[in-house]
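Input sequence (292 aa), recorded before submission:
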Amino acid sequence: MKKISLLTTGANGLVGSKFTQLYSNKYKFDSLEISHPTKPIDITNKDQVMSAFEKSEADTVVHLAAFTDVTTAWEQKGDKNGLAYQVNVNGTKNILQACQKFNKFLVHVSTAYVFDGEKSSIYTETDTPKPIEWYGQTKYEAEQLILESEISWSILRIDQPFRSDSFPKTDVAHRIINGLITDSLHPVFINHFFGPTFIDDFAKVLDYFVSSKTTGLFHATSGEKWSDYEFAQTIKQTHQLSGDVRPGDLTEYLKSVNRPYQKNTALSNKKLTKILPFKLKTVEEAIAQIKI
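Predicted structure, token format:
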């Protein structure tokens, strides 16, 4: 069967590489990557993006590329010439304009960091974003560009993604695993909450949106709310790791850092699960699938 052409950005990253790995038999990936050995494409360069879109027969683009180092982004706060803004906002603007010119459907991956983290319960798609740091601000501005555009799109927000296998960029689960194995795990917060995203499942979500071209804004996480401490304890117990999990206090930690930190980024996925033709794994089921 002939493979389906699909434009991607960020296909070499933590999330994108799992998607391309799982669906290499279905899609022919036209990857826009600055690190490509023979055809490097910088998404902040509009001419390069336009040229790549024009050459591709794909009718859909999955936009995963982003500057995701939250601490480094904070150091660039307010700097629209900084890499975080250039990639997250201007790069997305270039992708958008190319989608409009060449009539392509956009699947855009965003983040729970568009919220301020002050809500005690999990966030829904109807909650108003209010970013408190620069990474979240740039991703929010990218969302706004898409919402105001005339193209067909879907926005999928995720939070703290982790995958079943290890990857050069260590995810939240493997960071805990490595710390437990070496008994060097830093204290983990009992009063910070998030909504883990299992990348292996999220890859299936991406495939669904590419195939169905479902439009709208969706939260694509586990739909569960976990503290860092509960998450680490579950990993330790599930895989019978010997290191200690020590409780940490976010309030105390915030006294020693100079950037904001959301207290809660957990997202409700009820809107998404109503339309998916498959069931997402629970966080406990996902943790059990991690290969140690």
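Checked by second reader. Residues 51 and 103 are 14 Å apart (CA to CA).
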